[in-house]
Write a structure and sequence with these properties.
4-stranded parallel sheet, about 240 residues, 4 strands, about 10% strand, alpha/beta
Length: about 240
């Protein structure tokens, strides 16, 4: 039995957990063709109560419905026509967001400043941007070992995603947009942001902020991704 047959039938080694990451059918998105769900399909294995609860939120919870409807309208009306910059602005308008917060990496200030100018040109009332190094606090003061700094032995300000979120919370932003925050720092920002959050740029220092490129080249240039271990960190 080859790998594709396994993914279609759901026949795997005992105890091997399978999910949408293993599916080759995608019956949930077959445009009504009626393909059978694999045995391990999340649609089949998830309780109907979970789907009912989600549908109730989409339809009846005001905040959830507002965001959900806006996302659907953008996809349906502008599919393949708008850039991400434009989609973010259309989304903001659809949910009634006038005050836009930007949580930016200092390394992408040019991009954030350009985005802020575009927002103002499109009539958004307030744009509040906060860079990641706000406060200029040394990493050691925040509990980070000197040995894991990019430049050990030197003053090195820590990224400060919690303060970024708190400043934008105090600014009473309606929507916060992430521009290139580090992996993990973005997690903390989202956790502490009171306003809804979306991304404009996802940081990838190696691939010019296009992380999908590594997935497309996993069988060639980035074949190391398929190896058991990640590259060793610097000494």
């Amino acid at each position: 039995m080859d790998e594709r047959e396994e993914k279609v039938t759901g026949r795997f080694a005992e105890g091997d957990v399978r999910s949408c990451a293993n599916c080759a059918v995608v019956a949930c998105d077959d445009d009504g063709a009626g393909h059978a769900f694999p045995d391990f399909c999340m649609t089949e294995r998830t309780s109907g109560d979970v789907f009912d609860e989600a549908l109730s939120l989409y339809r009846d919870d005001p905040e959830t419905s507002r965001i959900f409807q806006a996302a659907a309208e953008i996809e349906g009306r502008y599919y393949g026509r708008l850039t991400r910059v434009e989609e973010v602005m259309v989304f903001a308008r659809r949910i009634g967001a006038r005050r836009i917060g930007i949580a930016t990496c200092t390394g992408l200030l040019d991009e954030s400043q350009a985005f802020a100018k575009i927002l103002r040109a499109k009539g958004f009332e307030e744009v509040c941007a906060v860079a990641c190094k706000v406060g200029k606090i040394d990493k050691v003061e925040a509990g980070i070992s000197d040995g894991v700094k990019v430049h050990p032995g030197c003053f090195e300000p820590t990224c400060n995603p919690i303060v970024q979120a708190k400043i934008l919370n105090e600014a009473n932003t309606d929507l916060n947009v992430i521009v290139g925050l580090c992996v993990g720092h973005d997690t903390l920002f989202i956790k502490h942001s009171e306003a809804p959050v979306t991304y404009l740029i996802v940081k990838d220092r190696v691939l010019a902020h296009n992380p999908a490129a590594a997935l497309y080249t996993r069988g060639s240039y980035y074949g190391r991704l398929m190896a058991p271990d990640l590259p060793k960190p610097r000494p």
